[in-house]
Amino acid sequence: MSEKFSVYVDGFNLYYGLKAKSAHKYLWLDLVKLAERLRPRSTLTKVHYFTAPVLNDAQAAARQSDYLAALKATNGSRIEIVQGRYQSKTMECRQCGGQWQRHEEKETDVNIAVSLVADAASKSIDTALLISADSDLAPAVRMASRVNPNFVTIAVFPPRRFSAELKTLMPRSAHLGVNHIRNSLLPDTVTDSTSGDSWGRPAKWR
């Protein structure tokens, strides 16, 4: 029987890795197509994409909205988009006493951990690809192995991202190569076959 696998994408970790490597050139990325390229001999069950809405930048928020809509239109139920949230935190300058608000992204690590451990416990898949270099996910990887000793988690590090802890913890790891990324982009225009709505690749992402 073909191995079944799912992919868990840390959206922020991947985004900043792609930007560090190639600016905005590869942000219009089809995550399902990428997953299938990474493991072509296995059966993809689902891609779980963990992100959070853009704040305080209307144009960036519009690009993100178009991208998420294009992903869903292209891949339907094969992709799950899990939105986190932000928490406001008051910061204070030690020298002048001035204060300002900073927004911290919350829930992504927890959402990834819950999804990973739940899939391991259900035994619905054999292998998990974790696209992240966030060492905070190490406890979730350990727990997934504990609840299902046959469950395999493989780290796929985004460009210019690396975690020695995750590499040591997992039986296999790899860096996400540019060739896989380049060959996994969405079409420049994505059209929903049901609604007829279309979304174009943002000019800034070309």
UniProtKB/TrEMBL annotation:
<dbReference type="InterPro" id="IPR047140">
    <property type="entry name" value="LabA"/>
</dbReference>
<protein>
    <submittedName>
        <fullName>NYN domain-containing protein</fullName>
    </submittedName>
</protein>
<dbReference type="Pfam" id="PF01936">
    <property type="entry name" value="NYN"/>
</dbReference>
<feature type="domain" description="NYN">
    <location>
        <begin position="5"/>
        <end position="166"/>
    </location>
</feature>
<feature type="region of interest" description="Disordered">
    <location>
        <begin position="187"/>
        <end position="206"/>
    </location>
</feature>
<dbReference type="InterPro" id="IPR021139">
    <property type="entry name" value="NYN"/>
</dbReference>
